[in-house]
Amino acid sequence: MRRILWRSSLVAVLAAAGAVVPPVSADASPAGLSEQRRLADRRFVTTGDRAYEVGAEDGRYPATGWHIRGEMGGFWSPPIKLLDGLWFAVDGQWLSGTRFTSGNGFVQLEMAGPGGSRIRRTDVVPDGGRAALVGLTFGGPARRIALTVDAHSELLSAYPWGWTTPSQETVNLPDTGGFDGRSLVFRETAAGERPHEYAAVVGSALTPDGHALGPGHRGPQDPAVVCPVADPAPPRCDDGPYGRGTGGRLDYTLDVPRTGRTVWFAVAGSDDGVAAATAESRRALRDPAQALARKVADRAGIAARTRVDLPGDRLLQRSVEWSKRNLADSVQEARDLRVFASREGTRFPPPGRHR
Q1: Cα 352 versus chain centre, distance
Q2: What are 313-348's pLDDT values in tens digits?
Q3: Of 72, 107, 160, 315, which shows the fewest CB atoms inside 10 Å?
Q4: What strand order describes the sheet that includes 131-138?
Q5: What is the C-alpha separation between 232 and 115, in angstroms, rounded?
């Protein structure tokens, strides 16, 4: 059995998400590229070198992709998927994006809350770790709010696909959910010729007031519309036919001062068990604001390496600038991979028995 470190790119994913070339209608500014129209129809990708997130620009997570139908979105840390999605509610109202901004190494959503309040959501995936960070910024006035966080797991490997032999219909196993006193903990375990322990941990540095576990917990996408294996499919689905995930909820009471407050959450995972996933979560939550600042500085440094001035075509000029950022975002790393010849998806040999 050979084990390798794999580095590849998400250029194809970025193109499918509509992120490589900025749309003509978008608002270009030094802070990023913003859009307010048809957010539910637009996809975003935010990446680090060991994890990435794919969702819709309104803050939802529609079923996406065809290799494993409906399962290519959500939170991933190659070679495994972690979550279908992560949703937030304030005082019982699920937050919905009204303006989306793609920045230098991060994305932001302006979200509508109860009573006309506005909440800013910032998603960033720091390099070097297997975790994504999501920050919620609440402005004044001073008040106390109830914050609810829903997470739905989908721990599965990137291969086999939905149509291979075998397929995810038989290989993907049911997830289990738990709570460790601060975070939701999801597991998929298997023995036999392909033993593994996939894990995802969702939580904050804060201790929640309460939690719940169960098969749903998809925020405003609950109950889920499940795509069939074959077409025709509904105009929009929430899960694919191979989903075996489970869900959980975290409840918090937050005091927001008149100057505002930011609360950070981490989605972390590992294909090496719960302890490794928990360590990734703790590392990511150590200083989220600094992790965001480092990511922005890194992307600014990459952008400054070359300058393109096209007075006759500013859209093309911006496209070149964003292509540099997307190329930097497209680098992915996975470790301890098992390599084999699938023979166009017809073989899935046990570890250690292939040549």
Answers
A1: 32
A2: 999 998 888 898 889 998 999 998 888 888 888 888
A3: 315
A4: 27-29, 32-35, 96-102, 106-112, 118-124, 131-138, 261-270, 196-204, 184-190, 176-179
A5: 40
